[in-house]
Write a structure and sequence with these properties.
There is one protein chain. This protein is an alpha+beta fold. It has nine helices and 20 strands. The strands form four sheets. A six-stranded mixed β-sheet has the order 6-7-8-3-9-10, sandwiched between helices.
Length: about 375
């Protein structure tokens, strides 16, 4: 296995469109790094540059100790798993997995040994003689992964490999890929638009928007300490709530929602960071799980106002409710409880120790 280093990588197409703006990050030997972001953010383009399927406009790409900017894909010692599986329909599973090794003139015994070992790892030994049309979506995905494993590459690349699967199978397959990473101790770069996949699979996550890297961090750090409003809104499901307002110096520092429906005293830990923003516009960010409908006698909870209940979604272990507070739409995840009827007001309590604040202009975290 090997590390991958991107040093100020840029991709500009012939029409002048800049798909990737100076991406710089390192994937350590054996690390699982996920590139995540909305459609068109440059994540797949970045992966394809690592694979050699897209030319690099400027910057340096290294795999191991070798600069590979001008090295053909077949000589980069990488294996890529695509979204559409790309299996040969007329070949058996065994032949699909062995095809790349046959092209490289590997001995038959070595090919058989590698294919059987990969099949055992992935639990597909019993389907080696079947053809792709006889397989389920999950089995086809395992075959595509197995074809990459037999290569024993320095780096595995995954381009949204689970997006064609149903929700239940996606959960199962992301667990299987995580287990595979732990077993192989392989260097893996994984592209997805699904932030749940990113949070549950990656050692570190690279968040992109419009071709720019927004933040690189561990899943929990991204969730707890987003660097800007975009990262805060993209990471987490349901997404973070935002309330526009300003900081006021009254009874200490207070947050005042623009429409006056949300107001509370800013806790001591955040007051130092916000003291220079008195009478300036800021945006409050609050996670759905940090909103409550009662104080429960807990000191860290502050009553901040009320909201009209619009929709209630009972999930069994929790209730998700959608409410409107002035101009702000709020989503909350609360413990199972008796809630008022839709259309009535509910009190709002925030865990003020877990709130986020963003500059209204730059959208950077304060």
């Amino acid at each position: 296995m090997a590390r991958v280093l991107l040093d100020n990588i840029q991709k500009i197409y012939d029409n002048g469109f800049v798909a990737v703006h100076g991406a710089s990050f390192e994937v350590e030997d054996g690390e699982f790094v996920v590139l995540v972001g909305p459609s068109g953010c440059g994540k797949s383009t970045t992966l394809r540059m690592v694979a050699g399927l897209e030319d690099i406009t400027s910057g340096t790409l290294s795999i191991g100790d070798r600069v590979v900017n001008d090295v053909p894909p077949k000589d980069r010692d990488i294996a890529m798993v695509f979204q559409n599986y790309a299996l040969y329909p007329h070949m058996t599973v065994f032949d699909n997995m062995a095809f790349g090794l046959k092209l490289r003139k590997f001995p038959k015994k070595e090919i058989a040994s590698r294919v059987e070992s990969a099949a055992e790892t992935l639990g597909i030994t019993e389907i080696l003689e079947r053809k792709p049309k006889q397989l389920s979506g999950g089995q086809r995905q395992r075959v595509a992964v197995g074809r990459a494993i037999v290569r024993k590459p320095q780096v595995f690349l995954f381009d949204e490999p689970l997006s064609n699967l149903d929700a239940k199978l996606r959960v199962q397959m992301r667990t299987e890929i995580s287990k595979l990473h732990n077993k192989l101790e392989a260097t893996m770069i994984y592209v997805t638009h699904d932030q749940v996949e990113a949070m549950t699979m990656g050692d570190r996550i690279v968040v992109l928007k419009d071709g720019h890297i927004q933040q690189i961090d561990t899943p929990l750090n991204l969730y707890d300490r987003p660097t800007n409003r975009f990262v805060a809104s993209f990471i987490g499901s349901p997404a973070m709530n935002f309330v526009e307002g300003r900081v006021s110096r009254a009874d200490g520092l207070r947050f005042l929602g623009t429409d006056g429906t949300v107001e509370f005293r800013i806790d001591h830990a955040a007051a130092g960071r916000l003291s220079s923003f008195v009478d300036k516009k800021v945006v409050l960010g609050v996670r759905p799980e940090d909103i409550y409908t009662s104080g429960n006698g807990t000191a860290r909870l502050s009553e901040v106002g009320s909201a009209k209940l619009d929709v209630v979604e009972p999930m069994g272990n929790e209730i998700v409710f959608y409410a409107t507070s002035g101009a702000s739409n709020l989503v909350a995840r609360v413990a199972p409880q008796d809630l008022p009827e839709v259309g009535t007001d509910v009190p709002l309590w925030f865990d003020t120790s877990k709130l986020h604040y963003f500059d209204a202009e730059s959208e950077n975290s304060l």
